[in-house]
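Lab notebook, bench 4. Continuing the backlog of folding jobs that were queued last week. Each job is logged with the same field layout so the records can be merged later without manual cleanup. Today's entry covers Nucleotidyltransferase family protein, a 219-residue chain. Filled in by technician R.K.

JOB TYPE: sequence-to-structure
TARGET: Nucleotidyltransferase family protein
LENGTH: 219
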Amino acid sequence: MSSKRAQAIGTTPNSPLDRHLLGDPARTCEHERRTVLGAVIRSDHALMAVLRAARDIRLPDWRVASGAIYQTLWNVLTGRPQGHGIKDYDLIYFDGSDLSFEAEDRLIAKAAKYFSFTDKPVEIRNQARVHLWYPQKFGIEYKALTCSDESLTRYLSPTQAIAVRLEDDDNLDIVAPFGLANAFAMRIVPNPIFSNPVSYRRKAMSAKENWPELEVAGI
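JOB STATUS: finished
OUTPUT FIELD FOLLOWS
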């Protein structure tokens, strides 16, 4: 990547991020968006501390997902302070060996000491169990998942379907099954393959209260 190109998309020190450029798939590629998102994540000390703590727990197939990732990006894109609007951290993992509530609850209790440094809740959920409680809570059928990454395809919006894991070599493994363009464009759209319109509207409008620049489709 040339220095001129790097400056244009905001990957050089002190260069602002152009969300219109980065959110346009015709003008920037997914690799560039992943590079920028990785830099944004590394610049947030609180998020990196959560990622390091999550790695230390050694959960199977784990990632920090959704809000804390794309909201951290939105704060950088709009010049808001770190942590603005971020209510919690979602830590997902996949363990099909024991689907009981008690097993998940024991793990949550065990993990609490790893996150004693943060004043925000860390919500830990076994994705192997989601199909057991989702239909009762939301009245929508939910087929059993096979891994944590598959859960992202059923998020309310492709914009929210972003997760990251800090590997042992300190590389950031970013997964976004629908791509990152919507997140950079600050555009919330409904999931075309998994519909929950009531929850989608509620969550989208809640996000818009903290980031009024958001464009919300499908409501």
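OBSERVATION: The chain has one domain: 46-178+188-216.
SIGNED: R.K.
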